[in-house]
Design a protein that fits this description.
about 180 residues; globular; 4-stranded antiparallel β-sheet; about 25% strand; two-stranded antiparallel sheet; 2 domains; alpha+beta; 6 helices
């Protein structure tokens, strides 16, 4: 895919895929048990992503919105496939720490993967995508579990375009965003 004369690797977002969980007998806490992994990977979107490289976002769905809590990646250096990375023991501990604290919402995963039958994302690009997603998630949720790439966040924004606050953007900002290809 070309954009402005530059060759771009187009990735697609799939999800959210709900993660089966168990409620604690007391309180608001939830837990993702080891046995729930197989059920998750039976979902048609998860099956599509299981053998691919890419990024993923663990989030909680509450009402009509989503709150990101962890961004990860699976590439050549991390085992090569999302199916081996998303529910690795250390990741499961991170998710369960969020759930056990009683955060409201249903746990879900979003995938950012190559489209169709493509499975590989070059490591350099995968690292750039992960860093961007972590920084974007950190702006949305200060309780993001990630530590890497959360220091030295950009301290600027353009109102109505990028990191510019809430509310409907002004018509000028929307025209600018469209002109620049920033969505």
């Amino acid at each position: 895919m070309k954009h402005g004369g530059v060759e771009i690797l187009g990735l697609e977002v799939l999800g959210p895929v709900e993660i089966p969980f168990t409620r604690q007998t007391k309180g608001l806490g939830k837990r993702i048990d080891d046995g729930k992994r197989a059920t998750f990977w039976n979902h048609y979107l998860a099956v599509t992503c299981k053998d691919k490289q890419g990024c993923y976002v663990f989030a909680l769905r509450s009402g009509k919105g989503f709150t990101p809590y962890y961004v990860g990646k699976a590439g050549k250096k991390s085992g090569g496939r999302l199916g081996g990375e998303v529910f690795a023991d250390h990741k499961l501990r991170k998710y369960n720490s969020v759930l056990f604290e009683g955060s409201k919402g249903t746990p879900v995963i979003f995938f950012v993967v190559p489209p169709g039958s493509k499975k590989i994302v070059p490591n350099k690009i995968l690292g750039e995508v992960e860093k961007y997603l972590i920084q974007a998630a950190k702006y949305e949720n200060d309780q993001l579990v990630n530590v890497q790439h959360t220091k030295n966040l950009p301290k600027w924004g353009i109102v109505g375009v990028i990191r510019g606050g809430q509310g409907k953007p002004a018509a000028t900002s929307m025209k600018f965003s469209k002109m620049m290809g920033i969505s």
